[in-house]
Amino acid sequence: MRRMEKEADLNNAADLFGEIGISKNRSAKPITVNEGDAADPSQAIDLSAMKLFNPTTRDQFVTLRETLVPLVAGQNTSKAHYGLFVQELVRSLVKDLSSEQIKKIASVVTTASNEKMKEEKASQGTKKTKAAKTKTTLNADRGVASRADTAAYEDGLEDDDFM
User: Fold this and answer.
1) Cβ neighbours around 55 below 10 Å, total
2) What is the DSSP letter of 39?
3) Number of CB atoms found within 10 A of residue 34's CB
4) Where are the beta strands (DSSP E) in 40-153?
5) pLDDT tens-digit profile of 50-64?
6) For labelling alongside 137, which of 3, 8, 76, 144 has CA 20 to 30 A away?
C-alpha cells in the first residue's frame, strides 16, 4: 500500500509539473525534493530537470507562475511568517536583475499596495465618528469689539498716581 501511495504521488507530481526535460545548466546543483524518508535518495525528485522549471518562452513563465503561486500562497497567507518569507523570497529572486528591472517590479508592488489600501478603505465604509459630528468652530470677529479698550484707563490716571 505504501509503494502504491508513493507511485500515485509521483504520478500526480508528474501530471502537475509536466514532462521531465533535460536541464541545460549542468553546472547548477540539482534541486531535489524527497518524498517520505529524506535519507533515502531513491525517493528524491529532481525538480531542476523538469520542463516546468526550465522555462524559455513567455507562456512557459506564465505556466510556472500559475503553478507556483497556488502552491506557495495557498494556505500560507494567513500564517505569521508568510510576509517575511515573501519579502526574503522577492529579495532573493531580484538579486541578479538590473536596477531598471527591479524598479519596475517595485512599481508593480507599490501599485498593488495602493489598490489593497483602497479595497480596505472601501470595505471599512465611510462611517463618521462621534468626534467628527460634534466638531465645533470658533468664529472670531475682527471688528471694533475685539480691540483692547485703552482709553478708559488713561482718563483717571495722573502723572503722580502710581499705585
Assistant:
1) 14
2) T
3) 13
4) 44-46
5) 888 888 999 999 998
6) 144
